[in-house]
Amino acid sequence: MLTRSATKRELFLGACRFGPVERVPVWMMRQAGRFLPEYQAVRAQHSFLEICKTPTLAAEVSLQPYRVLGVDAVIVFSDILVVAEAMGMPLEVPDSGPILGNPVRDVAAIRRLRDFDPEKETRFVGDAIRAICKEAGPDVPVIGFAAAPWTLACYMIEGRTRGDVSRAKLMLREEPNALRELLERIARVTAEYLKSQIAAGASIVQLFDTWANELSSEQYEWLELPAVQMIFQQIGTSGAPRILFSRGSAQHLKNMAKSGAEVLSVDSKTDLAEARGLLGTRVALQGNVDPQVLLGDPVAVRQAAREAVEKTGGWGHILNLGHGILPNTPVENAKAFVEAGQTAPIAARAQAGHER
Question: Which pLDDT score, from 0 to 100, does residue 355 have?
Answer without folding.
Answer: 44
